Amino acid sequence: MTRSPVRRLTSRPPPAVKETWPFLFRLCSGEGNMAEVESPLLPDSAVNVTLNDTEAAAAGTARFVATPEGSAVAYGSLVVMALLPIFFGALRSVTCAKSKNSSDMPETITSRDAARFPIIASCTLFGLYLFFKIFSQEYINLLLSLYFFVLGILALSHTLSPAMNKVIPANLPNKQYQLLFTQGTGETKEEIVNYEFDTKDLVCLVFSSVVGVWYLLKKHWIANNLFGLAFALNGVELLHLNNVSTGCILLGGLFIYDVFWVFGTNVMVTVAKSFEAPIKLVFPQDILEKGLAANNFAMLGLGDIVIPGIFIALLLRFDVSLKKNSRTYFYTSFLAYIFGLGLTIYVMHTFKHAQPALLYLVPACIGFPVLVALVKGELTEMFRYEEKAALCDKEPLDEATDDLKENKKEQ
């Protein structure tokens, strides 16, 4: 009987789901199906076109205009929500990079992958555009909702699992379970799925399932954001760049991609209006007037979080590899992200036009750390840094060193 590796259910998304991360990454990088994700922060006018134009046209009502206070609350909340998955995802990526378990290893993006991403992303985006033009939008969104329902539950469970281990008291019973699917009989029996999980994992799954049903039935913006934050955090944690050069290629390519599809065509906006999925963070600009029932949203695509986020996480792992008990490059790039996102919002409101956020985020997130490295004389070291050599092989190297020391003592 052929056995498959036994895996923890919420240690990370299962392999079948894990393989969908590159596809989801394309969607959330602006590469995929969203105009939001497309990377621009949509201005008030564009947001209302996306969400409320049909109703406004039918009713003959004036378009909603956000108050300065409502806009400040909405965009401030979006900035805070964008920073959370980057910060915590980067921290968790350090642990993920050191994992020796093949089932827990991150997805590594090479320079070849990075160079192909804008091309694949463009094909994905244009393909979705044609799908929405040819087929019924209702049925496409139904299929996508079911897909993101399953993926969102797994992503949210994985996100909540570490916190759940700290919240639930250790003295409470924690039973172990196993989920096993096999194919065939006798000597030809083969294990397809073999997962081990415990009571804490089940609590995470139950809570995530409730959020999933809530999103599926109501499409409420809070449920959307819970899934969106989980996707972003998992993306930053599990998608790793192998070196800084690869990061520059990826961000540079998507920089051009973003500007072209936002300013050069209407494809991104069309897909954004048609696509319904938790691949964006939203916050209502009329929450002060309507509370949780508010429905005029400002948006930020997950691509504007995940793409710079995986580069910032790489710089944190570079900081760790320097063994200087300092996080200079991580904090520099993190502050650069805040600066770039703030600049996007400022330009957007000044010119009253949707802005591709990567237009401002990419130069900031690459330029600031490179400038710091140049001043500190570590630019060459930064671009020579290879993650696998520095982190993944660090523990085996330490073990080998200890063995040599013990052999010398015996001699």
From TrEMBL:
Name used for this protein in its record: Histocompatibility (minor) 13
Gene Ontology CC, one term: lumenal side of endoplasmic reticulum membrane
GO BP annotations listed: membrane protein proteolysis; signal peptide processing
Keywords in alphabetical order: Endoplasmic reticulum, Hydrolase, Membrane, Transmembrane, Transmembrane helix
Main location: endoplasmic reticulum
Family annotation (InterPro entries): Peptidase_A22B_SPP, Preselin/SPP
Molecular function, one GO term: aspartic endopeptidase activity, intramembrane cleaving
One Pfam family linked to the record: Peptidase_A22B
Keyword Transmembrane: yes
Compartment list: Endoplasmic reticulum membrane; Membrane
Spans traversing the lipid bilayer: 72-94, 114-132, 139-160, 221-241, 248-272, 292-316, 328-351, 357-375
SMART domains, per the entry: PSN
Protein family according to the UniProt entry: Belongs to the peptidase A22B family.
Membrane topology of the entry: Multi-pass membrane protein
Coiled-coil residue windows: none
